[in-house]
Design brief:
Elements (H helix, E strand, L loop, with lengths): L1 H10 L4 E5 L5 H10 L3 E5 L3 H8 L10 H9 L3 E4 L10 E4 L14 H13 L4 E5 L7 H11 L9 E5 L18 E5 L2 H14 L4 E4 L2 H32 L3 H8 L23 H9 L7 H11 L1 H15 L8 E5 L14 H11 L3 E5 L5 E4 L2 E4 L5 H6 L2 E4 L8 H7 L3 E3 L12 E3 L1
Parallel strand pairs: 1-2, 1-4, 2-3, 4-5, 5-6, 7-8, 9-10, 9-13, 13-14, 14-15
Antiparallel strand pairs: 6-7, 11-12
């Protein structure tokens, strides 16, 4: 009975959809659901975000400003800090952060807190979908017990599924609407209901798998695959430098093969909300099964060592011109973890800044997308990128390859340049080294 009632509401767009967490994942999802004709309620603990949404002011790069403004003006999308309004929703999606704690163990406190609120206000005929990336088992081990303790029977009078977010900030081709979705329900009916929502909202395929654990593991596999291959690229970069070979030219040649090779690139470390974090969720969970994820952990060691390696390369370049690292003026270009976005979550530039500061450098930075930042007690503001600023620095470190950066001018006006992102591809100069 409850299944069919909810299915009918989804099909005729009368279902009220809730989204918990209005960040890089939640807000684009809420907007797409509202654009599809559903009434959407966005929940967030940050009153500032809620106010911005209700005023139609966008703060996420992947959301079209006019879409948000039109939807909030029409009342199709509303935001609130009042979680009791979960009771008015037919379906709720959890899109909250899942960071690591100081011991590199999963911190699912945001998921648990959201699940507590949902369980508090849940009603029969409700669907709950977890989208936050987490370790396999979270949906059934953390969320489901909260619902059953309230007297619900999952699969009969409430429904529960996991559907991993797939968000790539700044991607101009794939957005929330056209990225394929994976759904795993606790029961077949749970999976069918969750899939029916995404099929109503998205233009992409929706693949239904047999359980939430499969969907949770699938998401971890996606990002672990990238983590390991980036580690290979980073290890190749270190070796190629010792051998006097350009790793960038090697990769460029290798990717001419139309099969059996996928290009990954080195850099000063890993950044973003998924790739540096998700593999640690799996290594943590694997211990429960007495399994040691050797390859994943080795990749993690390689990637986390890259900031220190880059600082050492900078020190060696300065040493060649009789300058110590301590006291040298370092101008770092880029704090965002990838080009042309304002997202600095887990950015290796933050670690670079910390290391340069600890080693006594006079550090300044420029980022056209990030005017200021705070990290581990370090607080900095972006300086204007002028010819004078380039010339004044003892070395310029390109940490993010923003399209706004003029590589030729940077090399021409700087004393030394260390390029960690191959922004200077094609430029040959005595004052330039690439990772």
């Amino acid at each position: 009975m409850y299944y069919q009632q909810l299915k009918d509401k989804i099909d005729n767009r009368s279902a009220v959809l809730g989204v918990l967490g209005l960040g890089y994942v939640g807000l684009p999802l809420a907007v797409e659901k509202a654009k599809a004709g559903f009434k959407v309620v966005g929940f967030d603990v940050q009153a500032e975000k809620v106010a911005l949404v209700n005023q139609g002011h966008n703060y996420i790069g992947d959301v079209v400003d006019s879409d948000l403004k039109d939807l909030t003006a029409a009342g199709q999308l509303v935001a609130t800090t009042d979680f009791s309004k979960i009771a008015d929703c037919d379906c709720v999606a959890i899109c909250v952060p899942t960071p690591l704690d100081e011991h590199f163990q999963p911190d699912i406190s945001y998921v648990s807190s959201s699940a507590d609120q949902i369980a508090k206000y849940a009603h029969k005929g409700m669907l709950v979908v977890l989208e936050s990336t987490t370790y396999p088992g979270t949906t059934e081990e953390v969320i489901m017990p909260l619902l059953t303790q309230k007297g619900f029977t999952v699969g009969e009078d409430v429904f529960l599924a996991f559907s991993p977010e797939r968000v790539d900030p700044g991607n101009v081709v794939y957005k929330t609407k056209n990225t394929p979705k994976v759904v795993g329900g606790v029961t077949p009916k749970c999976g069918e209901l969750a899939a029916s929502i995404y099929r109503s909202v998205l233009e992409s395929d929706v693949k239904v798998v047999s359980s939430p654990a499969v969907a949770e593991m699938e998401k971890i596999l996606e990002n672990t695959f990238r983590n390991i291959n980036i580690a290979l690229a980073n290890e190749m970069a270190v070796l190629c430098n010792r051998m006097g070979i350009s790793v960038w030219e090697v990769i460029d040649a290798a990717k001419t093969k139309p099969y059996g090779f996928m290009a990954f690139y080195p850099g000063p470390g890993l950044g973003g909300h998924c790739i540096p974090i998700d593999p640690f969720y799996l290594t943590w969970k694997a211990r429960e099964y007495n399994y040691h994820t050797r390859l994943i952990e080795s990749a993690g060691e390689i990637n986390t060592a890259m900031p220190e390696y880059c600082v050492n390369r900078v020190a060696n370049m300065l040493n060649e011109v009789a300058k110590p690292l301590r006291g040298s003026k370092v101008l770092m270009l880029g704090v965002a973890y990838k080009p042309d976005i304002d997202d600095m979550r887990e950015s290796p530039s933050l670690e670079l800044a910390q290391l340069f500061t600890e080693k006594g450098c006079v550090l300044t930075y420029n980022d056209p997308h990030i005017p200021s930042f705070k990290h581990k007690g370090l607080q900095m503001e972006s300086v204007e990128l002028t010819d004078e600023a380039l010339a004044d620095a003892d070395i310029v470190v390109i940490a993010t390859n923003h399209s706004a950066y003029d590589a030729a001018n940077i090399v021409a006006k700087s004393k030394l340049v260390f390029d960690t992102r191959n922004l200077t591809a094609g430029i040959d100069a005595d004052n330039l080294e690439r990772l």
